[in-house]
Amino acid sequence: MIKAPYLLYLGSTVDPLAIKTSRGIAMFRPEDAIGEFVREGGPLSLGLPQMGFAEAAAAGARTLILGVANAGGMLSEELIDDCEAALEAGLDIASGLHARLRDEPRLVAAAERNGRRLIDVRDAGSDLPVGNGLPRAGRRLLTVGTDCSVGKMVTALHLERAMRARGIAADFRATGQTGILIAGAGVPLDAVIADFISGAIERLSPAREDGGWDVIEGQGSLFHPSFAGVSTGLLHGAQPDAIVVCHDPSRTRMRGLPHYAVPSLTETIAANLQVGRLTSPDVIAVGIALNTSSLAREDALALCRRTAEETGLPVTDPVAFGVENIIDRMEQCFGESLQSSLRSA
């Protein structure tokens, strides 16, 4: 287990999207986020108290969370220097980067010297099964996206919370490092060998007989050449009864691939339903989640209304406006199963 409270690492990161792990923890586990570490001149902040490593340890922090992402998920010299200093100050280190803490000799030595732990969240395990596509009991909802980093995890977490608030049995299933750090369990899907992606999700979201729902965090996009394979395997393994499409309306080009345009919502819905029908023939779309953080409130509401008219689906920004309209649509489409879930809760 990763020991709380946490000090969230921002370092000198300049890309707001690159601190989404730290941001997600601050949003969904605020009680465990004691502060943030920002290097001098670092432009980003989550509004938490800014602390040095020794100061954070004295305030009760137990673990430094490397809540940043960089190209290739590597441990830069700056990161290694800061991690070593945090270990010397008495903090454990938890990382969701692709590069493993345990493979860096300086950090291994510092951890041993100070009796601290190095925790690599992106360890998928070596005993994953190959997917079989067999039907299984229970209901599952999967968030999908027009692109990467458009709010699939945030939408899934808001859906889970809102469903539980209505008395519906629901469990968030994490598939990325941020979600795992928030939920405390999950599978780091981008660290799974391709042949085992669908099997990993079948294991993550097994059959359930309580009438409840698994709300599965999506990854990547079927339209992103770098990550479409992960998105495809996730759709097959999830066997979703319902999908919610996530989209950033301010984005016109795919993240990291300016030579690729972001697909339309109608294209995205059609493609995900087609791929999903291989293992879930009756899958349907139940809503659209927009990230309208760059818009004024009235403009965001107007965009939601227009998008709903164009697609025939409930549309919202989960952070700004909640997800009640999507759950209303789920009750219309899956009323009997939602009610049985409520009775079983």
TrEMBL record:
InterPro entries: DgcN-like (IPR011669), DgcN-like_C (IPR035086), DgcN-like_N (IPR035402), P-loop_NTPase (IPR027417). It comes from the Bacteria. Residues 46-123 form the D-glutamate N-acetyltransferase-like N-terminal domain. Pfam families: DUF1611 (PF07755), DUF1611_N (PF17396). Residues 132-326 form the D-glutamate N-acetyltransferase-like C-terminal domain. PANTHER family: DUF1611 DOMAIN-CONTAINING PROTEIN, GLL3100 PROTEIN. This is N-acetyltransferase DgcN. It comes from Pelagerythrobacter marensis. The lineage of its organism: Bacteria, Pseudomonadati, Pseudomonadota, Alphaproteobacteria, Sphingomonadales.
